Amino acid sequence: MRILLWAERQKLRRSNMVWVAFFATVLLAAIVLIGGQQVYEGVRYIDTPGWFLSVLQPWATMLALPAVVALLGSYMICREQQDDTLKTLRMIPINEAKLTVAKMILAFVICVLLYLLLFVLAFAAEAVLHAPALPVGMVLGFLKAYLIDGVTVFFAISPIIALVSRNKNGYWLALVFAELYSFTGMFTSMSNTLRAIYPMTAVFGLSGYYDSTPGQFALSCVSVLACGVLAVIILAGQSKAAAD
């Protein structure tokens, strides 16, 4: 598995997809920062300590990062067929199931790293604007929230990566499906029950962005874990079909 992970990492270094994900994250942070210049009751949003850290997390999740990670993960799985290297890999031979697992693990790591990058960008802006007003406890709390978001968002979108990868040349569909999937969360968030069940808003209950009762927290856990289990079932079915 370590060799497979190394090989996939080397492939990504030669791909532009990682740069697309990086620049999408930076661009989103810049857009939200510009939006913070709006004035409400005589005060700019960005002048409130902690505003950028608290707002960037949900906006990134609702509008961009899940779609970017879904595109990247699907591309990693589909590229063997697209680059016509799958036949060569089968001659080695190589375990396709383990190869897919390696790709999913790497996509998971990238998802967490993108959310960490998002946190670093937000924290850097907050530190420049009003460092003395940032308690250490608040910063650590946001760091924890961003990390949990990175983990849970991947689980939430993993079925999309698994489903789209069935069509070996349709990885751009993952971008579209994941964008619609995450954007719908803006409507499900209006209901306490729906936001605890719908995976893309359940992640906010788990990270602490939404206040949740123990029952809602449990529903969110089940929802996100169910997505991960569904992705495993889909990928296992694909591997079995390929073996046959």
Question: Can you walk through the features of this model?
Answer:
The chain is mainly α and 244 residues long. It has one domain. Helices cover 79% and strands 2% of the residues. It contains twelve helices and two strands; from the N terminus they run H-H-E-E-H-H-H-H-H-H-H-H-H-H. It has a two-stranded antiparallel sheet with strand order 1-2. The chain is globular, with a radius of gyration of 19 Å.
Low-confidence stretches: none
Count of domains: 1
Which descriptor suits the 3D outline?
globular
The multimeric state of the shown protein is single chain
Spatial extent as radius of gyration: 19 Å
Distance between the termini: 23 Å
Output the strand order for the largest sheet.
1-2
What structural class do helix, strand and pairing data support? mainly alpha
- Main beta sheet strand tally, sense and closure: 2 strands, antiparallel
The H-and-E topology, N to C, reads as HHEEHHHHHHHHHH
DSSP summary, beta strand count: 2
Topology:
Elements: H1 2-13, H2 17-35, E1 39-40, E2 43-44, H3 51-63, H4 65-82, H5 86-91, H6 96-130, H7 136-164, H8 172-183, H9 185-188, H10 192-197, H11 199-207, H12 214-243
Antiparallel strand pairs: 1-2
Helix pairs in contact: 1-6, 2-3, 2-4, 2-6, 3-6, 3-7, 4-6, 4-7, 4-8, 6-7, 7-8, 7-11, 7-12, 11-12
